Structures
1.
Amino acid sequence: MGEGGFKVSKGLEKRVIDCDLLVIGGGLAGCFAAIRGADLGVRTVLVEKANPLRSGAAATGVDHIWAYFPDIQGPTGYTLDDLIEDHTDKVDGMIHQDLLRVISETALDRIHDLEKMGVKIRYEQSKLPGQYILVRQIQSVVNTLNFDGRDMKLHMAKEVRRRGAKIVSRVMVTELVVRDGRIVGAIGIGVRDQKIYVFRSKATILCTARISGGRMFTEPGPGAGVAFNLRWPPSETGDGKAMAFRAGAELINLEFSHHRVNFKNFVRGGGLPYNSYSPAGQGINAFGKAIMPPEKGIFEDSTQGIYNAPKHKLIDELMEGRGPIYCDLTTGTEDEVKFCEWSISHEGGGTALLHLMQRDGIDFRRDKLEMGPGEVELGNFAAGGLYVDGDCASTLPGLFVAGDEMGGVPLACAPGALATGWYAAEKGAKYIQRNKPPGRVTTSTPEVQEFEALCLSMLNRKDGQKWQEAQVALNRIMSYYGLKLKTEKMLQRGLANLDDLTKHAELKASNPHELMRCLEMRNLFLNAELILRGNLERKESRKIKSMNIHTRLDYPDQDDEHWKCALSQRLENGKIVFAKRPFRRI
Ligand SMILES: Cc1cc2nc3c(=O)[nH]c(=O)nc-3n(C[C@H](O)[C@H](O)[C@H](O)COP(=O)(O)OP(=O)(O)OC[C@H]3O[C@@H](n4cnc5c(N)ncnc54)[C@H](O)[C@@H]3O)c2cc1C
């Protein structure tokens, strides 16, 4: 008997769920995929590890969404094609333009869908057509909606149900089932009821997002040593990548990572010291010098997107003895600070930040807040994930991908998730129409039995380690060998250490929650191996504009001739096979 009275020694109870379209992950992409699937009359099931009401990177809100606004950008002569070229330039061409076009063309429609669900997107004080509040974020023009995004997940999850899709919450999917080379379902574990769930589907969309950098690396901080004080949701442990890789799918860009600046000790994103902190925010050093002056121009046209702002210069201040560094809003006007506070309150974690500041008597008007290097990001500029074609189809028939789980579309962010979730559901529905239903998976299918045996081995283990021990060991290996000191020999040594850890870790769980954490560790181990192997294979260093995304000390130069492409990895006969994939142009 485990903790809480869970019976563990015998087999686990099983539940079979049938559907046409299975959506795995109920974040921004997954909710829109489920909504569109249900709209198209396809029997749709959305399965989520947490609860889609408040799950994923947007659980507590996003305050910015970029899009093309024809009534606003059109009259200035900036066309949709200009936006695509502009965005492509901001990421140095390392992007699949066909998917970027899908996002650019449809993000505004998805924003309007959010409005129909009850999300406020228009403001009386705005003089712009449509009464939007627009700021500058990623592209060179003012085309990013600042809005009341805090509760968008609540509205979206309710809409999924209203349109008739079924939601299965608190189930962690861990395996995809392949029959005749085609994905025909998935297997998961109830993280509260400890049941095994077997999903039978005709098409599946993976929307499980990126890997939370702080579950993989503790460097450079500020979540260091505090595994759950992270900007990126700690429950996002590369489960989608791991299950897809085990099933034979191709993954790209796993070697890329970067980091930004963040508050010390309290993790908040929001593009510090800009984005949610603009127009009042500036980045200053210990002597009060503005290294990143206030972005006063964010409401006006400009030729440089703020993502290209030289944030690394702030980190240089630390290295050159002019730290600590701060986010400073004290020079902003009252209206500017109020605007920032509104924006922050709708950005992930922002409400908690404002609440804590109020509790502790900290005020942006008077106090500057200390920043430091942020946690490692394994998405955004890095854009690691499944390799997909222009239809969001993975290399495995029947498996589609949307949102941050999709590789090769950097800075797609929230609009990317909304737009590709919708689009992937349309492509999935067409796939269902065109293909015969697959053979039926049963609870006695070998994959289910293997998975049950794995769970039981963790639940019945008397001696062994708790998942936290494996977490610390993994973080130590990855932070030392896989981050700042990367060379051929260091990466090989990292792989040897990881192999040792993977072979000797005997993880034990005494309840379904711990079982989930142990299964997450298994997925993190696999993702760690792919990250190290990708780093070893890509023999160059690479920047996207000023952002380092891959640094090899033994190959310090960027080698566009051989490496301006995505590096893919897939499993074939138990071995990893690498390939170079060009970025598609339209
Ligand atoms: C703090 C913060 C602020 C941000 N602000 C902005 C912003 O202002 N503008 C912007 O454009 N972008 C912003 N982003 C990025 C944006 O939130 C993401 O790009 C977007 O949410 C990605 O959508 P997604 O559906 O791919 O992933 P998510 O929304 O993260 O959803 C993934 C879902 O998959 C579930 N899942 C994972 N593994 C499993 C499994 N094994 N089984 C079942 N379910 C699983 C997760 O629980 C989660 O609900 C922000 C991100 C963060 C962290």
2.
Amino acid sequence: MSTPNAAVTEAAASITPAQGKLGVMIPGMGAVATTLIAGVEAIRRGLALPIGSTSQMGTIRLGKRTEARSPLIKDFVPLASLDDLVFTGWDIFGGNLYDAAKTAQVLDNDQLQQIRPFLESIEPLPAAFNQHYVKRLEGKTVKTGKNKCDLANQIRNDIAEFKTRTDRQVMIWCGSTEIYMEQAPVHQTLAAFEKGLVEDDPAITPSMLYAWAALKEGIPFANGAPNLTVDIPALQELSKKMNAPICGKDFKTGQTFIKTVLAPAFKVRNLGVAGWYSTNILGNRDGEVLDDPESFKTKEVSKLGVLEHIFQPELHPELYKDLYHKVRINYYPPRGDNKEGWDNIDIFGWLGYPMQLKVDFLCRDSILAAPLALDLILFMDLAARTPSLRGLGIQEWLSFYFKDPDSAPGVYPEHDLFIQNMKLKNTLRHIMGESLITHLGLDYYGE
Ligand SMILES: NC(=O)c1ccc[n+]([C@@H]2O[C@H](COP(=O)([O-])OP(=O)(O)OC[C@H]3O[C@@H](n4cnc5c(N)ncnc54)[C@H](O)[C@@H]3O)[C@@H](O)[C@H]2O)c1
């Protein structure tokens, strides 16, 4: 039997090192993307800290509690260095990223001035866009082509050009929320999907064109929006075939982040929940897009699934069967990106006596989302370099980052933030050959 050290050495050696430039390709260069890119540059220059990023600031316990081994995650697994990130992307609005960041109004003017030339040096490429899928936006710089296959191949050409300037690539969708879409026949196999591209099948959305192009090029794809995108058998098939990891969907940033902390707390204490009313006011472009009922439906479905999965009402009908769950998002321009989310939670305890909990989260949407996007970029690149992960398709261990995590067919997704965190850290331990941590701990008390 190999010693733990030999296992660690062997596992670590199987991961391709993170050498050279990591190209980050972002369809949708609005509030989240500009806050991410400006943030990475500010951090690289020592002007700010990567607060909120687990990959940069999180630690991971290794071995027993008595061993006192808790390195930073970025020192434990071979992640790309922030200095090696190179950015490009696509958007329907012309101009450079300094203009886009000014429009987004997330970061202070003083902070933007410090990195202005860097942001001005990045200009989004023309987008594959169709207003049918995002009703509230009008495309200014968009690709034209004879069919969807042509558009997707133009994206592949953009990728090919970027490949000449970078060593590895990752794509992350930070584009607007598309209209609600359910799985259609064209989504069921790769062959049907590729036929649908040529035939302009309406069930193939712009986000799917980017995803297909990335996966065809062997590039991992993460989905920060609630769109169906890679959550279809056709693209899951392509992901496995090309060893190009996928994950999604919908960054778990504000209200749902808190919901997936509170709900497991009620559940483990066997407290009942009669109702959970969540509402938000939001005034950025995302809020404007979500003001359209068809895009809102996509977001609503993503936000609603959470409680059902955590509470398992089929196992606990007395506590959760009649739970009334409502989610609202109201577009309210004066608040810009500084969203306010309220939750009213009606719970009940011993002998059925009712109680209430109110949450008022005055958050900043893109400030919460940017570090999640950074972690996903770095971990998806790690997955692509790791033999035991890259062929799996869906990277369920990254469900920590998503409101509506993708999972294997027939397997329900884990929504509890703490289970997700354990899954993420145990996956990192596993790929590095370290023992998994079960928190059993009996051996501390033996002879
Ligand atoms: N900020 C958060 O906390 C958060 C949380 C979860 C999910 N999200 C999702 O992340 C996405 C981005 O959010 P945001 O606040 O940056 O929105 P945003 O409106 O500021 O940026 C989205 C950008 O995508 C562009 N776009 C739309 N369709 C496109 C296409 N086909 N190709 C290229 N570009 C396209 C738009 O022009 C816009 O600039 C949204 O879908 C949002 O729902 C955000």
